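Interim report, section 4.2 (structural modelling).
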Amino acid sequence: MTHDPLLLTTAVEAVTRAGAMMMARLGQDVRIDKKGAIDLVTEVDLAIERTFRALIADRFPTHAVLGEEFGGAAEAPAGPCWVFDPIDGTTNFAHGLPIFCSSVALEVDGDAQVAAIFDPSRQELFTAERGGGARLNGRPIHVSRADRIVDAMLVTGFPYDVHQRVEEIVGLFAAFVGQARAVRRLGSAAIDLCYVAAGRLDGFWESDLKPWDIAGGALILQEAGGRITTYDGGRFSSRGRQVVASNTVLHDQMIAIVRDFESRQSGPHR
Ligand code: IPD
Ligand code: CA
Ligand code: CA
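Predicted structure of the assembly:
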């Protein structure tokens, strides 16, 4: 499928502009508010999303926008919708830990067609167009070839309601730690997915994700040869909340670990 080149250009412009805004304020006294006990939003998140909405309104006035801080359609609308996370890794950003990025995907009828994720600390720009492969700073990327969990480095994240579900979240974490070479926890789901896409990590799982956390990273991963599904192996949707993502080869082994853990629990995960 060929895409209007202005779509990817706009996605790249949005996330690189966001990156410049983050780096201009990193480590400074930034206003931080709480959306929940451990769920933060800074004035930089808000400023970046305002700038993004102005860009899309100017360039594609008929397109819908779903952003973390100012909302949008809960269900994927028919037609084009930009799904935007101004800062993915806000907790890291608020603490001055340089692992965060900005992520955008253009979905059409709920399926991402174009995506861009920019990590300004490393100046790494991940992009993808459906059917056109995935790139890191313009160079094609591909998932790893690891074929056994014992040889795999995995990554996960903890959702903001972890205090209410700590045993379940840490229980599944323990199940993976007990079988993998290593498990990391970086604090940015979008970077996690890009690193699986680039072969730096071999697999990722997390529950209770939001569309803006995963819409861009999922396309980049799929275009790099990876696979992303729900915990039970079902079709990925950015509205699906729980994901297992992998280099494809390890996918069934990761699903089996989740299934085995769930069968030892009283009920299924969210
Ligand atoms: C969060 C990050 C984190 C993940 C959380 C997300 P935010 O997004 O992606 O890695 O564990 O589930 O909510 O709040 O920094 O945009
Ligand atoms: Ca996020
Ligand atoms: Ca965010």
